[in-house]
């Protein structure tokens, strides 16, 4: 009986030793949180795969922000699974083939909804639009890259990549 009690205590001690100690390779909670999507983000770059001339200067580019200086997006992702996205609306005129003729920045629009992250897939449900948009994301300590899956069907932009920086 004393021997089985001894082994029970020894087994319990060993289990506690393995569960309470961490290796030097583990990242701290603060470091893990720094790569979290839960944060406020500001748009730094906006690229499209099909070049367009948004400012009418005759030169097409993939970099929307070099064409439209007023383009901006602020994204706030909350722990409770909700988000707020404030973006300047984009007013686009297209030809019959879907090519951009001209574009101008409109008013700031605030959209809210819920989000869910599954591996590298971000699903955002926009309440006011009653629509869900799924994108591929890469989250770093200071950046968030949000990429469209497939081509953008609303305009002839092709694939879209937005790069945000942590605010």
Defining key terms:
globular; alpha+beta; 17% helix; 167 residues; 49% strand; 3 helices
Overall outline? globular
The largest sheet has its strands arranged as: 1-3-4-5-6-7-8-9
Q: What's the helical proportion of residues?
A: 10-25%
Rg from alpha-carbon coordinates: 24 Å
| Order of helical and strand elements | HHEEHEEEEEEE
Counting helices, strands and paired strands, the structural category is alpha+beta
Q: What is the number of strand segments?
A: 9
Extract low-pLDDT stretches: 1-34
Q: Count helical runs.
A: 3
Q: Tell me about the largest β-sheet.
A: 8 strands, antiparallel, barrel
Task: Give the CA-CA distance, first to last residue.
Answer: 62 Å
Beta percentage is over 45%
- Oligomeric nature of the chains: single chain
- The average pLDDT value, as a whole number, equals 78
Task: Describe the protein.
- 17% of the residues lie in helices and 49% in strands.
- The chain is of the alpha+beta class.
- It has an eight-stranded antiparallel barrel.
- The longest helix has 19 residues, at 2-20.
Task: Tell me briefly what this model is.
This protein has 167 residues and is α+β, with helices and mostly antiparallel strands.
Map the helices and strands.
Elements: H1 2-20, H2 29-34, E1 39-52, E2 61-63, H3 64-67, E3 73-77, E4 82-94, E5 100-118, E6 121-126, E7 131-139, E8 143-148, E9 160-166
